[in-house]
Amino acid sequence: MITIINGRRSVLAAGLLAGALAGCATTVPANSMSTTRHETVAAQEDREAAAHARQYDPGATKTECLAPGGRRSQIVCWTSSTNPTAEHLREARRHHERAAAHRAASQELRDAEARACVGIPEDDRDMSPFAHREDIDGVDPLYTLLGSRSGGSRAVGAAVRFRAVPGMTPEWLQRLVDCHLARSAAMGYDMPEMNYCPLMLKGVTATVISTGRGFAIEVRSDSVEIATEIRRRAEALVAPASHSSSEPVEGETLAARLAWPPPHSLFLFYSAPDTAAARA
Description:
With 280 residues, the chain is an alpha+beta fold. The chain is 39% helix and 16% strand. The protein is built from 8 helices and 7 strands; from the N terminus they run ααββααββαββααβα. A 5-stranded antiparallel sheet has the order 5-6-4-3-7. Strands 1-2 form a two-stranded antiparallel sheet. The radius of gyration is 30 Å and the shape is elongated. 30% of the residues are buried.
């Protein structure tokens, strides 16, 4: 076997590297981490890409005698030249794509937060609506029907009822909730000072409805584990003296209390008390 290494470098390296790095196709889920973490990982990937780029030499060649089919020839010496530093070019491209993907994900989170929070006062951005415990009227579990064949139901979260306060509308409260959902994603769902807030859980959705006597924020998740944590956090918000649907007032149904059902939640229902059992 004859091996020749040519270590010539030229300005062509920069052009080849730039061309190889073009056309980034790597994607990273935006909500996989916080904006800060995305930027940190992007910087790490840039450093890795630069390290590999420095080791790539477009003029380097390795010549071997190969037979047809890529086997080393024992009889005829066919010339086959390769670049022994090509792997560094591939690695530089891979790290560069990942850096770009993380920066794109970070920007996506920032843009989503900016859109969701436009017009929301700074104080309301910094304080969860669930921090206003004095305005919370109660908590009710949320369920979804499992279907006609299996029957039964499954817990999907909780609804936190708020008393009507001056200036509050369901539209404004929904905007506030959406703002906090977007901020939670941008922070990577990592805000220990807000571990009481159901909106800080990854993958939850939240919808505001009017109850006739105020508003309710329905927080739900398809994950059984997350749904359980939603209910735990929601119930922890209620002062011991407050009453929730787990201890209903005799003769009062939750449908009456919440003007149930809202048209957009046809597949969800609140647990209603058995009035006959209650009278007994």
